Amino acid sequence: MEWTIQELAARAGITSRTLRHYDRVGLLAPSRIGVNGYRYYDFSAVARLQRILLMRRLGMGLSAIAGVLADEVDTCDGLRAHIAALEEERDRIEQQIRSARHTLDALQSGAEPRMDVMLAGFNDDYEEEVVSRWGERAFQESNDWWHGKTLDQQRAWKQDTEDLVAAWVAAAKAGVSPTSEHAQSLAARHVRWLSRIPGTPTAEGDRERSIEMVECLGDMYADDPRFAGMYDDAAGATFVRDALRTYARTRI
């Protein structure tokens, strides 16, 4: 079975122009081109498009997606990863639905919603990463600290975080050197921000593990597309990584 480019675009909820662009950048070529010049796509092309659309939804850029697909040597492995990511997204959404229902039920009954339940599913996106890198205790302490805050306190923390990110982005756009005093003052501010989170090596004053953690976070900012978007682009995330790495190695 094959679909024309118009049929595939309609079923995928995208445009024919998008599919042509994917072909031009080497992301998704048609399975064949007919004598009439029409593009046709078979099941393997559709499976590849599934992966592309999922990664786009996760915020990945086309070059990053191309890198992931280039590293996959087996289509079945790619589909397994696709399913795992969808299942993780499903679990997160289900938790958010339960949290929203709890809030609605409490408000309708005149009761006060539980803060920890209200935000469950919205703030634990990095549990697996934290546990794998720093242990269960680090995650549990930081998670308990977060859910123990009032809503106003959580909003204030998020505003502080957004202000810090905005300062990093402004410095990167200004062409500041990662080793400059300005960049290093931002790195110091970043480390102070980390030290306010219980369970982290910076909060516990563990110098060696703090250096490791700051460098590790810097690498994650540069390598993970989620953070590249947060710091405006890949260049911004790389700037943050380089500044944090310099600070960790010379000033912690």
From TrEMBL:
It comes from Streptosporangium pseudovulgare. It holds the Pfam family TipAS. The keyword Coiled coil applies. Residues 1-71 form the HTH merR-type domain. The keyword Coiled coil applies. Residues 69-110 form a coiled coil. InterPro entries: DNA-bd_dom_put_sf (IPR009061), MerR-type_HTH_dom (IPR000551), MerR_fam (IPR047057), TipA-like_antibiotic-bd (IPR036244), TipAS_dom (IPR012925). SUPFAM superfamilies: Antibiotic binding domain of TipA-like multidrug resistance regulators, Putative DNA-binding domain. It comes from the Bacteria. The lineage of its organism: Bacteria, Bacillati, Actinomycetota, Actinomycetes, Streptosporangiales. Gene3D superfamilies: 1.10.1660.10, Antibiotic binding domain of TipA-like multidrug resistance regulators. This is MerR family transcriptional regulator. Keywords: Coiled coil, DNA-binding.
